[in-house]
Automatic annotation (TrEMBL):
Residue stretches making up the STAS domain: 11-122
Pfam families: STAS (PF01740)
Protein name per the record: STAS domain-containing protein
Highest taxon above the source species: Bacteria
Originating species: Streptomyces osmaniensis
CDD domains linked to this entry: STAS_RsbR_RsbS_like (cd07041)
Length: 140
């Protein structure tokens, strides 16, 4: 191999606002710089928009590493300090196994089977109504 690896310089993960919730859908692997930019984008948007929740859809992610696990944990801690909750949706079994094997417990992150359930969980929290029981919460 003669040349240095090149990475997309404009890689960006969109952060969409749906009412009082931000929706972030991750597709494929993220470079560390993209994950760091995502962390900053979420923090800025939560702060500027006064949202109550963040849904991070991992259904398009096949593998995670310790850095990505730390980014997810940092996002949950940051949003909690900004009075919002974070729910990770659509985690594949292989991703969950990898996180456990890496020893990452991801405190403060709630999980849901899919995006619809994550939105329902956040809606239930915001309105203080009981949830339907299908969403799960990670142990603190």
């Amino acid at each position: 191999m003669t040349g240095a690896a090149t990475y997309p310089s404009e890689a960006h993960v969109p952060v969409l606002r749906l009412g009082k919730v931000l929706l972030v859908t991750l597709q494929g692997d993220l470079y560390d710089s993209t994950a760091e930019q995502l962390r900053q984008d979420i923090g800025r948007t939560v702060s500027d928009s006064a949202v109550n929740g963040v849904v991070i859809d991992l259904s398009g992610v096949e593998i995670v590493d310790s850095f990505m696990g730390r980014v997810l944990s940092d996002v949950a801690a940051m949003t909690r300090l900004l009075a919002a909750q974070t729910v990770v949706a659509g985690m594949r079994p292989a991703v969950a196994i990898t996180l456990v094997e890496l020893g990452l417990t991801l405190p403060g992150l709630r999980t849901a089977l899919n995006t619809e359930e994550a939105l329902r969980l956040l809606g239930a929290e915001v309105s203080a109504l009981p949830g339907d029981g299908r969403a799960r919460r990670e142990s603190p």
